[in-house]
Specification:
By secondary structure, the protein is of the alpha/beta class. 48% of the residues lie in helices and 14% in strands. Helix 1 crosses helix 14, helix 11 packs across helix 13 and helix 12 packs antiparallel against helix 13. It binds one RNA strand of 74 nucleotides through helix 1, helix 5, strand 9, helix 8 and strand 12.
Length: 486
RNA sequence: GGCGCCGUAGCCAAGCGGUAAGGCAGAGGACUGCAAAUCCUCGAUCCCCAGUUCGAAUCUGGGCGGCGCCUCCA
């Protein structure tokens, strides 16, 4: 089976067929940098990353572009309130976004275009739409797209343009449109725009680009007139993506996007996340509360991207333990004794089966719940097999390790957990010393002393595991501070 | 009102016509100085009702319940 993706345009599962394989052009709607992106944003960004990783894993050459919206009502208002320029205001949030991205193991996109750097191209784009009779100017110097002039309008969201007109709520900033359904391509500058440095010259006077226009222009500039995949949150289907199609196809006359992917909104503690409900979660808050990035990543990937996902603190802790189980298995495999003449433990077959099941799950519209299950079946059956076996043939150990590594190139759980659990060499030395001290205590059956040391390390997130072959230790959760020898 | 989604064990979540994956939590057991890790054992009349079918969690119809978008919110 090959990859199938659900396409919002057709409302059905379709075989993934890029225009120009093995090259794949992917565009994802990124954050508006007016505040710290919340955990729901990262569900989407993580799905972008998942597709990015899985396509590369499957042999495609992916070019991924994720835009940053730095000019829109919210960034302008916020900048005005803070009394700084747009650029000054958005910069820290841009940096925060990129930092969170690294923390969560989201691979860098090939480009992160920012809207303010594409204004010239946007002006050109608007001029073309005007030239084709798909847009019109208003007295105040704004330009609107004329929905009535674009026959395909509504094909993505399946909204009936006529019904839209009847039920429309009139926009607050309705400057004098021909039709309430029309949307802004270019907005004439208001004093606040000028104050924030969010106004540019155009043939229609000073103004700024409309939000929908930004994505059309940046994606076409960076990736070409037809994108293989365009992604975003489900809320973007209408009007944002519908409008992007109208603009883009209006100008190019070509299909804008082959596969439209939309990520279902996250719930937090069973409710829609919103500032008024006080359940707005930001990555940095979770980290400060001691949750590790790998647990966040696991939880956000634990349900398929089109299905509801309820983000809860209880779930986050459960995810942390699930990640730990995976790491424990990896460590166990690493340390299992090998012997060239050892009898088979059946590990190679387990590895093959797991990889196939993983691929089947991912091919099925990125069904991460299924893919994750395949991985954990390997963990469970692998552990059971190792319990039964003594030393194993080196090739079998290698087979398991290869599959674990391969799967993790897509899921990135071990990768992210490893990154947040790294100890400095000095700490490692001190832990080793304490473990040795405890070994000595145990050898003379001084269990009180031994348990005290174990407890002390545990408080610092280090867990000891005794076995016949000695004691191994591991970092659990996020590393905080350093371990001092007490 | 328009468009759409969902209801599977305590929690999360697969399943897409052939008698229920996986994770977390819980109980008992093995192992252990005690733990930790690991293994073994234990748990679901799949919201309700009526149909279609040899057979339905899976299809159809009707209820009930929850949710999303239609507001420059991923």
């Amino acid at each position: 089976m090959a990859l199938e993706l659900y396409n919002t345009l057709s409302r059905s599962l379709e075989p993934f067929r890029p225009l120009d394989p093995p090259r794949v052009r992917v565009y994802g709607c990124g954050p508006t940098v007016y505040d710290y992106p919340h955990i729901g944003n990262y569900r989407s960004f993580l799905v972008y990353d998942l597709l990015h990783r899985y396509l590369e894993w499957s042999g495609f050459q992916v070019q991924l572009v994720v835009n940053l919206t730095d000019v829109d009502d919210r960034t302008i208002e916020a900048a005005a309130r803070s009394g700084v320029s747009l650029r000054e205001y958005t910069h820290p949030f841009t940096e925060a976004f990129l930092a969170d991205t690294r923390t969560l193991g989201i691979l860098p996109a090939d480009a992160y275009p920012v809207a303010t750097e594409y204004v010239d191209k946007m002006v050109e784009f608007v001029a073309q739409l005007l030239g084709k009779g798909l847009a019109y100017t208003t007295e105040d110097g704004s330009v609107y797209f004329s929905i009535a002039a674009f026959p395909g309008y509504g094909k993505l969201s399946r909204v009936d343009p006529e019904a839209l007109r009847a039920g429309a709520r009139v926009a607050v900033d309705n400057y004098g449109k021909d039709d309430v359904r029309d949307f802004a391509l270019w907005k004439s500058a208001k004093p606040a725009d000028e104050a924030a440095g969010a106004a540019w010259d155009s043939p229609w006077g000073r103004g700024r680009p409309g939000w929908h226009l930004e994505c059309s222009v940046m994606s076409i500039t960076e990736l070409g007139e037809t994108l293989d995949v365009h992604m975003g949150g489900e809320d973007l289907v209408f009007p944002h993506h519908e409008d992007e199609i109208a603009q883009s196809e209006g100008v190019t006359g070509k299909p804008f996007v082959r596969h439209w992917l939309h990520v279902k909104h996250l719930l937090v503690e069973g409710r829609k996340m919103s500032k008024s409900l006080g359940n707005f979660i930001v990555v940095r808050d979770l980290l400060e509360a001691g949750h590790e990035p790998a647990a966040i990543r696991h939880l956000l990937l634990s349900a398929q991207y089109r299905s509801e996902l309820n983000f809860t603190m209880e779930g986050l802790e459960a995810s942390g333990r699930a990640v730990q189980r995976l790491l424990d298995f990896e460590a166990r495999i690493e340390e299992v004794p090998v012997a060239t003449d050892a009898p088979t433990a059946g590990l190679a077959e387990l590895a093959t089966t797991a990889l196939e099941a993983f691929r089947d799950g991912m091919d099925d519209d990125l069904n991460t719940a299924d893919a994750l299950a395949a991985l954990f079946v390997l963990v469970g059956q692998g552990n059971a097999a190792l319990d039964r076996a003594g030393p194993v043939p080196p090739a079998e150990r290698e087979a398991i390790q290869k599959v674990l590594a391969s799967i993790d190139r897509v899921l990135g759980l071990v990768e992210v957990a490893g990154a947040s659990r790294t100890l400095d060499p000095g700490t490692i030395t001190r832990v080793d010393q304490m473990v040795e001290e405890r070994r000595a205590a145990r050898s003379v059956r001084d269990f009180a002393r031994a348990d005290a040391i174990r407890r002390e390390l545990l408080e610092r997130g280090i867990v000891l595991e005794d076995s016949a072959n000695g004691t191994r230790w591991k970092v659990v959760g996020r590393v905080e501070g350093t371990v001092s020898h007490g």
